[in-house]
Design a protein that fits this description.
This protein is α/β, with parallel strands linked by helices and about 450 residues long. Helix 4 packs antiparallel against helix 12, helix 6 crosses helix 11 and helix 12 crosses helix 14. The longest helix has about 35 residues.
C-alpha cells in the first residue's frame, strides 16, 4: 500500500468502528463492562520493537476498547453533568483533527480566525453578554475559571498601581476572593494555580445560593482588593445566585465579579429561564463549558471577560518569530496555551446547525426532562427529591444514607442508566444531571424504571 492508501484504510476503519460504537449507545449498558486491569491486560505490555500497520492498530483499538468505555454519549447517562456530542459538532471535530491547524495566530489560520470570532459573537449574542467582551476557547470550565480569574487578579492589582506582570505577587497587596459556601471546587483549584490561596467562604442558603447579606458584610469588613465568585447552576441543586443583588453589592465595594457558569450559564439563552440569570450580564467575567450543555466534543470551555484588555494582559505574550496581529487580536492572547486545536469550530458548527430557536429548545428540553425525572422520582415509595428543580439537576434520597447508597449500587450494577452518588448538605444522595441533547422521554422512563426496580 502507498501512504495515501494506508491513510484511507485507517480512516475507513476508524469510521466503521465509530459508527458501530454510536449505534450501540441506545441499547448497551451505560457503565464500562471491564475493569482498568482488564484493559491493561489487552493494551499494556512493553513497547513493541517494530512498527505495526496503521489499519491494524485502529482495528485492534476499535475491537477491544468498547468493553472499557462508558456510554457517556447515551441518552441514559446522567452523571457528572456530561453532555453527549451533537452529530454536527462531532463531525466538525473530525474535520478539526483532519485539518490539523494550530489555532493561535489570527493571520496564519484565517479560516479558524473567522469561525472562532463568529462563534464568539454568536455566543455573546445568545447569552446576552456584552458584545465587545474578550472570548477565549479553552479546555474546559476549570481553565475558563483560571483564565477569567487571572484577568481579575491583574485588574484589581492594577487599580492599586501594582504591576503583577513586572513585579509578580511577592510583596503585592493580598487579593481577597469571596465565594459561596457551595461553589464548585474548581474555583479553589484555579485560585491555587494562580497563587491566590484559599478563598473566604460566604454562607449559602438551603439550595446553595450565596447569602447576599453575608456577602455584603464580608465586603464591608475588609476593603482589600477583592474578587467575588458567583455561581450559575449549583452542581447539586442547579440553583442560581441572586445576580442582580450580589453583583450590585460587590461593585459598590469595588470588587471584580466572576460567574462560574459551567452548565448554568446556558440558561441565559432561554427566555423562559431568564429570571434565573437576571442581572448576570452586569458581572465582569463568565466561565462555561461548551462540552456540557451545548454538547460539543471534549475539550471545550469558554472564558469571557468584559474588558478584552484585561484578558489580553493576563494571557498575552510576544515572540519575535510569531506572525502577530497588530491590533492585538490573536486567539492565543485570550487563552493559556500558545499551541491549541481549533476547538471553536465545533461550537460554530452546532450553533449554525441549531440556530437561536434550536439552541433555546435544547436548553428548555433538558430542563423539561429534569422535571419529568423529579415527578417520576416523587412517585417511587421512599424516594424524596431534595432540591427545587429549577434547571437540569435532580437530587434524591431514600429513607437513610445506607439505603440510598445500596440503591445507587444496585442501579449501577443493573447498567440501564448512570446516576451518580454524592454527598449534599451532609446526606448521601443520588444526583441526576440531564445534559445530553439526545435524552428522550423514553430514556427518562427507562432510567426511572431501573430506579424503581433498584428500590423495590
Amino acid at each position: 500500500m502507498g501512504a495515501h492508501a494506508d491513510r484511507d484504510a485507517a480512516l475507513e476503519a476508524a469510521m466503521r468502528h465509530a459508527r458501530t460504537w454510536l449505534d450501540s449507545l441506545h441499547d448497551r449498558p451505560v457503565p464500562a463492562q471491564a475493569t482498568a486491569e482488564d484493559m491493561l491486560a489487552v493494551f499494556g505490555g512493553p513497547l513493541p520493537e517494530g512498527s505495526c500497520d496503521a489499519t491494524g492498530v485502529i482495528e485492534f483499538l476499535g475491537a477491544n476498547a468498547p468493553p472499557g468505555l462508558v456510554a457517556m454519549g447515551s441518552g441514559r447517562f446522567f452523571g457528572f453533568v456530561i453532555g453527549g456530542a451533537h452529530p454536527v459538532a462531532l463531525a466538525a471535530d473530525w474535520l478539526v483533527s483532519a485539518w490539523d491547524q494550530n489555532a493561535g495566530l489570527r493571520k496564519v489560520t484565517t479560516a479558524n480566525t473567522a469561525l472562532e470570532e463568529t462563534a464568539a459573537a454568536w455566543l455573546l449574542d445568545l447569552l446576552g453578554l456584552p458584545s465587545n467582551s474578550g472570548v477565549g476557547f479553552v479546555t474546559g470550565c476549570t481553565m475558563a475559571n483560571f483564565t477569567c480569574l487571572a484577568a481579575a487578579r491583574g485588574a484589581v492589582l492594577r487599580k492599586l498601581g501594582w504591576d503583577e506582570a513586572r513585579d509578580g505577587l511577592s510583596g503585592a497587596p493580598r487579593v481577597r476572593v469571596l465565594v459561596g459556601a457551595e461553589r464548585h471546587d474548581t474555583i479553589d483549584l484555579a485560585l491555587r494555580y494562580l497563587g491566590l490561596g484559599a478563598p473566604e467562604s460566604v454562607a449559602a442558603d438551603e439550595q446553595g445560593r450565596i447569602d447576599v447579606a453575608a456577602l455584603e458584610a464580608a465586603l464591608a469588613a475588609n476593603e482589600a482588593p477583592t474578587i467575588v465568585c458567583l455561581q450559575a447552576g449549583n452542581v447539586h441543586s442547579g440553583a442560581f445566585d441572586d445576580f442582580s443583588r450580589a453583583v450590585a453589592v460587590a461593585h459598590r465595594h469595588g470588587a471584580w465579579v466572576h460567574v462560574d457558569g459551567a452548565f448554568g450559564l446556558w440558561a441565559a439563552a432561554a427566555p423562559a429561564l431568564k429570571p434565573l440569570v437576571a442581572g448576570i450580564d452586569a458581572a465582569d467575567s463568565w466561565a462555561t463549558d461548551a462540552h456540557k450543555t451545548l454538547n460539543v466534543p471534549y475539550d471545550c470551555g469558554v472564558a469571557i471577560v468584559r474588558d478584552p484588555g484585561a484578558l489580553r494582559a493576563a494571557m498575552g505574550m510576544h515572540g519575535d518569530y510569531l506572525i502577530m496581529d497588530a491590533g492585538g487580536g490573536d486567539p492565543y492572547e485570550r487563552v493559556p496555551e500558545l499551541s491549541r486545536r481549533a476547538r471553536a469550530i465545533p461550537v460554530w458548527a452546532v450553533l449554525r446547525c441549531l440556530g437561536r430557536r434550536g439552541a433555546i429548545a435544547l436548553v428548555e428540553r433538558l430542563c423539561e426532562r429534569a422535571r419529568a425525572f423529579a415527578e417520576g422520582v416523587a412517585a417511587i415509595p421512599g424516594a424524596r427529591v431534595l432540591n427545587d428543580v429549577v434547571y437540569t439537576q435532580v437530587c434524591l434520597t431514600f429513607e437513610d444514607d445506607e439505603r440510598t447508597r445500596a440503591i445507587g449500587q444496585r442501579l449501577m450494577d443493573d447498567g440501564t442508566a448512570w446516576i451518580s452518588g454524592s454527598i449534599w448538605r451532609g446526606r448521601a444522595i443520588l444526583r441526576i444531571s440531564v445534559s445530553n441533547w439526545s435524552t428522550s422521554p423514553g430514556d427518562v422512563e427507562r432510567a426511572l424504571a431501573a430506579l424503581r426496580h433498584a428500590a423495590g
